[in-house]
Design brief:
Blueprint lengths: L1 E8 L4 E8 L4 E5 L5 H11 L2 E6 L5 H4 L2 H8 L3 E2 L6 H5 L1 H8 L18 E4 L2 E7 L8 E5 L4 E5 L2 E2 L2 E2 L9 H12 L7 E4 L5 E2 H7 L7
């Protein structure tokens, strides 16, 4: 069984998720944006072995701690899609602009594309490319537990911003309606910020994509 724990990090309260395989106790961290020591303390408390880092996209609050954590523990960085290379290149500028500690640069060990899968222990998670908030944004879907880790594509009652460089509102709506909704109304999603919700609830009541 795949398990997860969501730990809000950074002044932006970004929902960083620790996901792990119950059988092997191997774990991945989705979007280690910062507060690395706190995340490692949770890994230790849970009795897990951290084996990799997964990125939905490369905004500072999601990716700011990735380079340091990867270097410290010699961990592979998986994702996002190559469309976010320019955001990775600009991490130092993002750090300065938003008042974060200087982010260590990194190169992903493996880029992701739509339809790829990633594996932690005995558990396989599906990857969907969902551009719009950023061009290289990906979502991690775990159908075995009806969960999706959607980064900043969709929120409870809202959607991701598209006013950043290379954001695209039409693309974002398409990503939500064509790639998230087919995962099923029952799927609970973990957004990049704020509380969890279900795709069914958002299809009904979200003012940006409700009824879509």
């Amino acid at each position: 069984m795949l398990q997860y724990l969501t730990v809000p990090v950074t002044p932006f309260q970004q929902n960083c998720s620790i996901v792990w395989c119950d059988a092997t106790h191997q774990a991945a961290i989705i979007d280690p944006g910062g507060e690395i020591d706190r995340l490692l303390a949770e890994i230790e408390r849970l009795g897990l072995t951290l084996t990799q880092l997964w990125l939905t996209h490369a905004h500072i609050d999601h990716a700011g701690g990735t380079g340091e954590l990867s270097e410290r523990l010699h961990l592979p960085i998986v994702g996002p899609h190559p469309g976010d290379q320019f955001w990775i290149d600009g991490l130092a500028m993002q750090s300065q602009r938003f008042g974060f500690a200087p982010a260590q640069p990194f190169t992903p060990t493996r880029w992701l594309a739509d339809g790829d899968t990633v594996t932690v222990g005995n558990e396989t998670v599906q990857v969907r490319h969902c551009p719009g908030h950023t061009p290289g944004h990906v979502v991690f879907h775990a159908p075995q537990i009806d969960r999706a880790f959607v980064g900043d594509v969709l929120f409870a009652g809202s959607i991701g911003r598209t006013d950043f460089p290379q954001g695209n509102h039409e693309q974002l709506i398409h990503s939500i309606t064509q790639r998230l909704w087919p995962m099923g109304n029952q799927t609970v999603f973990v957004p990049g910020h704020g509380p969890e919700s279900t795709f069914g609830r958002e299809r009904q009541s979200n003012p940006y994509v409700g009824g879509a």
